[in-house]
Specification:
The protein is of the alpha+beta class and 394 residues long. It has three domains: 15-128, Orthogonal Bundle (Butyryl-Coa Dehydrogenase, subunit A, domain 1); 134-234, Beta Barrel (Butyryl-CoA Dehydrogenase, subunit A, domain 2), CATH 2.40.110.10; 243-387, Butyryl-CoA Dehydrogenase, subunit A, domain 3, CATH 1.20.140. Helix content is 51%, strand content 14%. The protein contains twelve helices and nine strands. A hairpin with a 2-residue loop joins β8 and β9. α4 packs across α8 (242-277). It starts with 20 loop residues before the first helix and ends in a 6-residue tail after the last helix.
Amino acid sequence: MTDQFTPLAADFTALAAELAPVEQEFLASLRARLERDIAPIVDEHWEAASFPSELPGILAEQRACGLGFAESRPFENSAVFRGWVAFELARVDASVATYVGVQNGLAMGSIALCGSAKQRQRWLPAMAAGDLIGSFGLTEPESGSDSARGLRTTARREGDEWVLNGSKRWIGNATFGDLTIIWAVDEADGQVKGFVVPNSTPGFVAEKIERKMSLRIVQNAQITLTDVRIPADHHLEHATSFKDAARVLRETRAEVAWLAAGLAAGAYEAALKYAVEREQFGAPIARRQLVQEHLVIALGNVNAAITLCARVSQLLDAGEQTDEQAALAKATATRLMREAVAHCREACGGNGIVLDYGVGRFFADAEAIYSYEGTMEMNTLIVGRKVTGQAAFV
């Protein structure tokens, strides 16, 4: 029996009802699978800072990766639809959505946007099928927001090989994955270039970052590259400058905005359930005016973010999305998310910080989403430069 699609309660203005029937059917199936097999285990893994080994297989079966690429998509679809996929994933758990964002948007996206036809065919179908897990290595221990100028990882061409040296930090999926897209400065011309590096290559070491307080399920790594040798054809053919890395980030930034909206929706749903069931002074706290105010503010934030994300994704479908529009979506959606989860946490009182009630996990995870893939400050400066005509980065 096919799962029936219905707009979520958090989608108060029912924007998802405008999706094509095949897209709605896909979302209904994905939602049912996530709620059945993933939602019951995420608190346990979050507390243990462990990754569910079954997750890649489940998501591959649901075809959650490769939706936007000709080599791996199950049907023609829109960027708006792919945003809703990120929303549905994050509504259950932000770490699950982040895993897909790294695998699909950053790793596969680098190959799709910067690889040759042969490279796309070599890696994308296997990654969509879950046979290869990928990571995206741009951020370094001493270079985050200034990656355009501050990368220290180097690449040197020696005959039919490239030799890579340096380090990367905050690299999701890298502790257990199969390959990593490494962005490094070519010693010959000073340009940033992209490389597909198998994690099993001698000299490649990925160490898990411990003691995180957010996105604890995501297995972030510090990567050390010591004379890592890869074949020449592992250089992504069209990744020849930092502008190519920025192109990948532009296409994924709007999906992170969708992820933020989905995380806020998950927090809202958990807070609403708690408010309806929790009784104080002889009645559900949902009857109290101040609790309703918390819930309505959160709901409004979710729907404001959805509306902005949908429009920016429509622009991407039309080939008209700009860096500044993607940056505005990410900055605004994450700001609205942060405020929404705070109201949801407050509506739950002390139980809002306990994993058993759901909201606490969303509350903690929101902090990482707020900062990754372009901080609020950097995205603000990107938009600010556009609207004022003045660059204020340094």
